[in-house]
Amino acid sequence: MTILSVPLGDRSYDVHIGTLTAEETAERLAEAMGNPSGVAVLVDEHVAEVSPRVAPLLAALAARLPCVRMFRLPRGESAKNLAAVERTCQWLAESGYDRGSVIVGVGGGAATDHAGFVAAIYLRGIAFALCPTTLLAAVDASVGGKTGVDIPAGKNLVGAFHQPCVVAADLGFLGTLPGRAIAAGMAEVVKAGLVADAELFASLEAILGPALGPERLPAAVARAVRVKIDVVSEDERERGRRAILNFGHTFGHAVEAASGYELLHGEAVSLGMLAALALGEARGVTVPGLAARTRGLLAKLGLPVDVKARVSPAVLDRMEVDKKRRSDKVRFVFVPRPGEAVLHDIPLAELKQELQSAI
């Protein structure tokens, strides 16, 4: 097991990565929670149905902590809306959870975002912990304190910064995931390599198959999480460098929303990274050939690479509600070469025109 610390002063916490038993996970959660008055476990309903690891975890938590109850969240992206958040808050209130209670989010990125956002707003903020069950959630969504939900205008437009007290990434949960979900998580690992870890990117290019084997996956997850921790600890509120973690997300979020969320988040980020690299090469910011290299890697990992087929006026228009927009400009992330990232403020109209031309 790897333990990484997120150094944020009095809000610091640890991220535990490995194949953990229910007892190990519960022990780490209990240690970080202290003496809560109750524990509300919010579980993605699909995970609750298919994973044999949920029931033992609940039992182990109940043996250590008071008032442990489970509430099932809608599956996947269906949990990321204000109506679902209201249902969860109502259940918490009816169940008697108070300011001394702790929320535990169990599921993929949508469930962890939901749990963190509810924790940020319920009774004006209570503590929470996360148990990510997907690769994407383990390497990205569960770390860093960004929480939020979608509204019809766009993805993640309503949210808050709220750090967990601990993250326990039990990679044993990945055993029930379909290959598509594993591939989607690998998109965020590739992103981490591109923006801040050239060795990680090179190691991914060197793999022979479509996925990392169980002997190499934990190390890759840890390296990706380390990238995020290093950036978040420097710029928690995304006033500067943390924006590099949005590489591929401006176009990616737009194409994800335009698909009606039929695309998984990692699949959309795959397309978004290729769009950003194409634009970078067209502008002379990105070294020639990096887009082709990345396209080959993403395709090998089983991710979509058909960027041109995804460009439409509707997708480009959706970038107008990007969270990174400031007035008529968007802070766009470029990768000059693996391991480096730079930010450019580009007028939205110019960005839309140049992206369409570059792609």
The average pLDDT is 94
Query: What is the level-2 CATH architecture name of the largest domain?
Result: Up-down Bundle
Outline: globular
Helix content: 40-55%
What letter string, H or E per element, gives the SSE order? Answer: EEHEHHEHEHEHEEEHHHHHHHHEEEH
Describe, in plain words, how this protein is organized in 3D.
By secondary structure, this protein is an alpha/beta fold. It folds into two domains: 175 residues, Rossmann fold (3-Layer(aba) Sandwich), CATH 3.40.50; 178 residues, Dehydroquinate synthase-like - alpha domain (Dehydroquinate synthase-like, alpha domain, Up-down Bundle), CATH 1.20.1090.10. 46% of the residues lie in helices and 19% in strands. The strands form four sheets. The protein has a four-stranded parallel beta sheet with strand order 4-3-5-6, with helices on both faces. It has a three-stranded mixed beta sheet with strand order 1-2-9, with helices on both faces. Helix 1 crosses helix 3, helix 7 crosses helix 9 and helix 7 packs parallel to helix 11. The longest helix is centred in the last third of the chain and has 19 residues.
